[in-house]
Amino acid sequence: MLAGYDTLITTIALGAILAYSFHVVLMAGQLSLGQAGFASLGAYVSTLVVPTEPIAGSISPVIVGLPVGAAVGAAAAFVVGIPVLRLRGVFLAIATIAFGEMVRVVINNAEWTNGALGLRVEKWVTFDFAWIIVAVLAYLFWRLGPSRSGRAFAAVREDELAAGSMGVDVVRTRMSSFIASGAIAGVYGVMFAYFFGRITPATFDFALTVNGLVTAVLGGYLVFFGPILGAGFLTSVPEIQTALGLEAGWIHPLVTGVLLLAVVLFLPGGLSTLFSRLRPAPVRPGPDYAPLDALDPLPDRGTPIAAVRGLAKSYGAVHAVRGVDLEIRSGEVLGVIGPNGAGKTTLVNMLSGLEPPTAGDGEILGVPLGSRPHRFAQAGVSRTFQHSKLFERLTVLDNVLVGTHVVSRPTYLRRLLWLPSARRDERRALALAWAQLERVGLADRAGIRPGALSYGDRRRLEIARALAAHPTLLILDEPAAGMNHVEAAELASLIRGLADDGVTVLFIEHNVKMVLEACTRLVVLDFGEVIAEGEPREVAADPRVVEAYLGTEADEREESEHV
């Protein structure tokens, strides 16, 4: 029945393979447009080094050519990625376009590639073989999505800063997606060569990159079958055009452009979002999975876990933090207060690796100041942000699951093999995430996205995500912002409960009443310098603190009462 459509359906398969090479980088939030270069390298090298006749009498050359093409594409992506992955957005896109064009020009002018005439190769790719490759790729991405690695990709796509603070190695994750893209593009190049029987430099021009990107975006890159949907849709457009008798060459690009514009405007997640309702509701793990069973014990109460000396941060002539000496002990609740612009957020940014200090030294849980954020997170530092940094396209539960990154084991390879240990580890991570949602009162909202939450609930979700990392040191940057008095009192109670459990809490807050109720020790900053430190009530009575901060707060309240 399908015999007359073999070429069409195989072309859809090839389009899906190419789209998967874009799918994997879009999953990690990267706009890479060098896939045509990776595909051409894979195709040409495979064609030149793999024998044209069956190997060992029965093995098709394409079976050997595929790993060769994938390896060449991956190696090229690694080499190119070292310099270009320092770039973001449109700058990364331009750099990778330049790489693709450079490869095309070299191949077009090289003698060993036969120049513009290209190379001929025997046709070995069949309809069923092409779809086997698509099925393998779809399976790989299906198993990747809900795994620890898949969540890392999603976190990097949504917010690199927040991902790093949750323990995700952003550089490694971006490089992994880039290398995977190169490998899949190399596979596409080999499949194209052995299906059409000829490759030329024009085969892998910029139009190929555009088609692959449009296919990936049209199908959707948030679910594993998006590239197949996109390829089927776009490849069918010319056939429908022909069936309707519309032979003008300008119609196809016009229709493609209109469809892409419609998807971007009305279905930003691609055609695959039409199937989003099929996603099952989140389910709590059974009672056999205790979330804290396999977690490391916290340090003994009173143990020094952080010490910094002479810490300073300058932005040109502006001194945000000046000569701060600070020691943090396990189990304490340390409050940091001060006027706006006193350097509070800059201080905790340095303590969590988001900003390197200009001067000073010290260690946080054994990690030297100036290290990358994921190293602090892996050591036991977790944090929230002054301005909410939630992963908006993930559900509430998935946001908290990202927080388990540093306390859960990699599961992707074991998931591919359906090993029971992978399911056990995923369920433990799930149990830990549910426990934190219940702790902050958001368990009944696990399946929605953060955009549907109130401001106070968003702050609680961010705290739950930070707690899912089982931190030794929890840093909260203005956690009560936007909360009413009742919610702030509940948060203070939660913080005291965390301290009772052995978690060390450092938090910045302008709600002085909450600070005095929750803290065991208080530090006051003014113009980047520590002006007072000690027991909260004593510090609050310090004349310098009253003049620099508390007096101002009282004056503002008094003025507001008379307005």
Describe the 3D structure:
With 563 residues, the protein is an alpha/beta fold. It has three domains: 203 residues, no CATH class; 178 residues, 3-Layer(aba) Sandwich (Rossmann fold); 81 residues, no CATH class. 54% of the residues lie in helices and 12% in strands. The chain contains 21 helices and twelve strands. It has a six-stranded mixed beta sheet, sandwiched between helices. The protein has a four-stranded antiparallel beta sheet with strand order 4-3-6-7. A two-stranded antiparallel sheet has the order 1-2. Helix 1 packs across helix 9. The longest helix has 27 residues. It is elongated, with a radius of gyration of 28 Å.
Briefly, what is this?
The chain has 21 helices and twelve strands. It has about 575 residues and is α/β, with parallel strands linked by helices.
Name its key features.
single chain; 563 residues; alpha/beta; Rossmann fold; 3 domains; six-stranded mixed beta sheet; four-stranded antiparallel beta sheet; 21 helices; disordered C terminus; ATP binding; LivM-like
Uncertain segments: 556-563
The helix fraction, in percent, is 40-55%
Number of domains: 3
Strand percent estimate: 5-15%
Question: So how many helices?
Answer: 21
* Alpha-carbon Rg, integer: 28 Å
Q: Quote the average pLDDT.
A: 89
* Total beta strands: 12
- Sheet/helix structural class: alpha/beta
User: Based on CA inertia axes, which overall geometry fits?
Assistant: elongated
- Distance between the ends: 81 Å
- State the major sheet: 6 strands, mixed
Sequence of strands across the biggest β-sheet: 8-9-10-5-11-12
Organism: Glycomyces albidus
Pfam families: ABC_tran, BCA_ABC_TP_C, BPD_transp_2
Keywords: ATP-binding, Cell membrane, Membrane, Nucleotide-binding, Transmembrane, Transmembrane helix, Transport
Protein name: ATP-binding cassette domain-containing protein
